[in-house]
Every structure is written in structure tokens, then in C-alpha cells.
Design a protein that fits this description.
This protein has 310 residues and is mostly helical. It is built from eight helices and no strands. Helix 5 runs parallel beside helix 8.
């Protein structure tokens, strides 16, 4: 149309654009300059602001080296202490394994002759009472030795107590198996290993497991034995209390521990008990050539043994 403005000369406003006045400096709108409220902004140095995390101080190289050396020494000391404990436990385990075949055990016929007129439970009670007296005597002796001014001898006394208590309790376990009619098969060394397994696990001999009847302990049995020895040593530490307090504590503690062991083994043996009238005739137990001189802890107080063999 004549007189109209050509399309290329027409002014078009961009859709959605801010049409506010250009009041800001350099003809910039307020929206383009951002907020002008300074209440939320701070011109304080960053180090003095409390809303920022505290700066982490990096230790000097000398301090880092010192901390590393201390940590290495602590780990080395822990390893050395652990090696010493394992060495002591290994030595005691070997000692008890060596002692086990030398423990004299009375068979059922001998026990019935020594305690005439008693049934299985009454006879077992006599054996438990005698073993408790024996372990209490050992504990009291170690407690009395704690009064002597020889601290380096204390580990030796503790080891002697564990070995002595183990021998008495091994004898008790073996004779309880005789009373309840469950004699493990095999020769002297095989039966000793079986009783040693029973002492470590605080259970009866399981004749259905061939591994418990072998002449040598396997790896699992040796670990159980070391754990049992460690438990005994920890419980025997109060025996070293001076002023004869340790003697009383050691006697009471050993008596209680032997009672607990006997109760567990007897409860387990009752499940498979064989009555005396149903027992087959078994050969007499052989006496070890180098038997330990343990005394007769199972005989009745004030009664002389009729059998000088065991």
C-alpha cells in the first residue's frame, strides 16, 4: 500500500523482554545488575567468619614422621607381645600333651573295689570331690608362692598350676568315663588324646568321631587346647594376689572350676551311659611306665587305698 512503512523499517519489541526503564548506570536495568541488598553479604575476611569450617592445619613433616614412628613401634610391640603369648601357650600345650599319657587312671573294677557298695552316681561324686580337693590344693600352693619376693618366678608358678590342674582333671575325666561305662577304644596314647580332647572341649569323648581317637591332636584340637589353657591362665591370675589372699582365692576358684567341668562332662556322659550290669568284661587298664606321682585324690578321706597300682 502506498504511504505505508516498509516491513524492514518497522520496530518490533522482543516478546517477553523486560520493558523497564534504563535507570541503572551504563543504561542497565536493575534486574540485570542483580540484587543491591548488602545485608546478606559480608566483607569480612574469610578467616574470621564463623559460618565457614575451620581451616585444617597440616602437620609439619617432622610431626608426621614422629607419629609414624610411634605407630610402627606400637604395632611392633603388639606383634611381639602376641608372639610371646602364642609361644607360652604352645609350650604349655606341648607340656600337657606330654603329661597326658603319664596320668594314672583307675579302671571300673579298681574303683568299685576301693569304694564298695556305691552306685555310679555316688562313685562319681566321690571322684569329683577328690579332684576338687586336689585342684584346690594346687591353687592354694600357687597363692602362697605369691608371697615370696621372686616376681620373675610368677609365670613359672602359673604354668605349673595350669599343668597340675590339667593332670588332675584329666584323671577325673578318664575315671568318669570308666564309671559311666564309656571307655574309649585304643591304646594308652589314643585314650589319652581322647581325654585331652574332652578336657579342651569340656565334653565327653565322642567315640563316633575317629579324629578324637587318633594318637595325635589335629590342628583344630590344638587350637581348642590353647584356648582352654589361655582361659585357665586368665582365671588363675587372682591367685597371685599377695598376703595369702591369693591362696584362698586360688583354692576356691580351682574348686569351683573343677566342679563346673565335672558337671558338664557328667551331664554329657549320662546321655550315653551304659549300666554296670550291661557292661562287657573289659581288660584292666595298663599303668604308664613313667606314671605321675599324683596321690590318690579320689579315695575316701581317712581311707587307705586297697590297690597300690593306681
Amino acid at each position: 500500500m502506498t504511504g505505508s512503512t516498509p516491513p524492514w523499517k518497522r520496530r518490533f519489541s522482543p516478546r517477553g523482554a523486560d520493558r523497564g526503564p534504563f535507570h541503572g548506570p551504563h543504561r542497565a536495568r536493575d534486574a540485570e545488575r542483580g540484587p543491591t541488598d548488602t545485608a546478606g553479604a559480608s566483607l569480612e575476611p574469610a578467616a574470621e567468619r564463623s559460618d565457614l569450617p575451620a581451616p585444617v592445619e597440616v602437620p609439619a613433616p617432622a610431626a608426621r614422621h614422629r607419629a609414624g614412628v610411634i605407630g610402627d613401634k606400637a604395632r611392633q610391640a603388639a606383634r611381639t607381645s602376641g608372639d610371646r603369648v602364642r609361644a607360652v601357650l604352645g609350650h604349655l600345650a606341648d607340656r600337657i600333651i606330654e603329661v597326658a599319657p603319664r596320668v594314672p587312671v583307675r579302671d571300673l573294677a579298681t574303683l568299685r573295689r576301693q569304694f564298695p557298695g556305691l552306685g555310679p552316681e555316688e562313685l562319681a561324686d566321690k571322684l569329683v570331690a577328690g579332684a576338687m580337693r586336689g585342684t584346690a590344693t594346687v591353687g592354694a600352693g600357687i597363692g602362697a608362692a605369691a608371697m615370696l619376693p621372686v616376681p620373675p618366678a610368677m609365670p613359672t608358678e602359673l604354668a605349673a598350676e595350669v599343668t597340675g590342674v590339667a593332670a588332675i582333671e584329666l584323671k577325673l575325666i578318664a575315671e568318669l568315663h570308666e564309671v559311666y561305662g564309656i571307655r574309649p577304644p585304643g591304646d594308652l596314647r589314643q585314650r589319652s588324646t581322647a581325654y585331652l580332647n574332652a578336657w579342651s572341649s569340656e565334653r565327653r569323648v565322642d567315640v563316633s568321631r575317629p579324629s578324637t581317637l587318633s594318637a595325635a591332636l589335629n590342628g583344630h584340637a590344638k587350637r581348642e587346647l590353647r584356648q582352654r589353657i589361655m582361659k585357665r591362665m586368665v582365671r588363675s591370675l587372682p591367685n597371685l594376689t599377695p598376703f595369702l589372699v591369693g591362696a584362698a582365692v586360688g583354692a576356691a576358684m580351682n574348686r569351683r572350676e573343677t566342679r563346673k567341668l565335672a558337671d558338664r562332662v557328667r551331664a554329657d556322659l549320662r546321655k550315653v551311659q551304659v549300666p554296670w550290669d550291661a557292661l562287657q568284661e573289659l581288660p584292666a587298664l595298663e599303668r604308664p611306665a613313667d606314671a605321675l606321682e599324683m596321690g590318690d585324690h579320689g579315695k575316701e578321706p581317712g581311707r587307705r587305698s586297697r590297690e597300690d597300682g593306681h
